[in-house]
Structure formats: structure tokens, C-alpha cells
Amino acid sequence: MDAILRREHLETGENLNTKIDYVVALSATASDEYQIDIRYIPDLSILKPDSLKTYLAHLGTMDWMTLEALGHTILNDLNNEVIPRWVQVTVVGKSASLAHRVTFEDRQPRWNNPALLSRMSSI
Q1: Cβ–Cβ < 8 Å for 119, 111
Q2: What is the pLDDT of residues 6-58, one digit of tens each?
Q3: Cβ atoms within 10 Å of 20's Cβ, excluding its own
Q4: Mapped to the 3 state alphabet, what secondary structure does 69-102 carry?
Q5: Whose CA is closest to 25, among 36, 17, 11, 16?
Q6: How many angstroms separate the CA atoms of 43 and 78, rounded?
Q7: DSSP letter for each residue of 30-81
Q8: What are the pLDDT digits (tens) for 90-122?
Q9: How much is the pLDDT for 32?
Q10: What's the CA gap between 34 and 28, in Å, rounded?
């Protein structure tokens, strides 16, 4: 699926309080095979949760060679459409015979909040 067509499913709204760093956590499935966990710190825009469900449903119809390819695609699409200050995407394969988890993380070049990031494992 073309990136432009894929990204059309990611709808954003205005972040009404850009002066505060806060974490948004979303979990969904891309198909019966993948669990997707997203955590991000918004900048100017927030992701509309219902649009994530639609976006992941479309990704779930595609054939992914690796969890890494799927995770990298989601990270790039979120960075292009939502433009968060910080984002983490975790993709978990739902296989009965193998536990496979891939985590990607990215942030804006000048953004830093060490106090918040140090607490991320408990959020």
C-alpha cells in the first residue's frame, strides 16, 4: 500500500495544551497476528484513537515479511502525520510457538524531558 494512502487513515486533532509533556498510550491489533502498542508525547497534534483502529486494520491486510518492517512503517507514518515529541512503537507477534517483540523509539531532535522518560517503564 502506498504511504500516502496508508497515512490518510491517521487522523489528528489539535493538542490543546502544548506546554505540558504527557504520555498517550494506545494498544490495538493489526490482525490476528500482531499486537501494536504505541506510546507518544504529543507536540502540536494528537492522534484520534478511532483512526488508529482503521489504520491498523488496513495494515493487517498487508503481508509483512518481518515484525521489524511493520514496526518501522508504523513509526514512520506516526512521525509524518502526528509529529510527536517522542514516540515508541512495539509490535508483538502472536505466535503460539515463538515470542517475538520489536520496539522502535524516536524523538524530535531538540526535545528532551529526562524526568518523564525515566518514569516511562512504570507508565
Answers
A1: no
A2: 899 999 999 999 999 999 999 988 778 889 999 999 999 999 999 999 999 88
A3: 9
A4: HHHHHHHHHHHHHCCCCEEEEEEEEECCCCEEEE
A5: 36
A6: 12
A7: EETTEEEEEEEE-SSEEE-HHHHHHHHHHHHTS--S-HHHHHHHHHHHHHHH
A8: 999 877 677 789 999 999 999 999 999 888 876
A9: 80
A10: 9
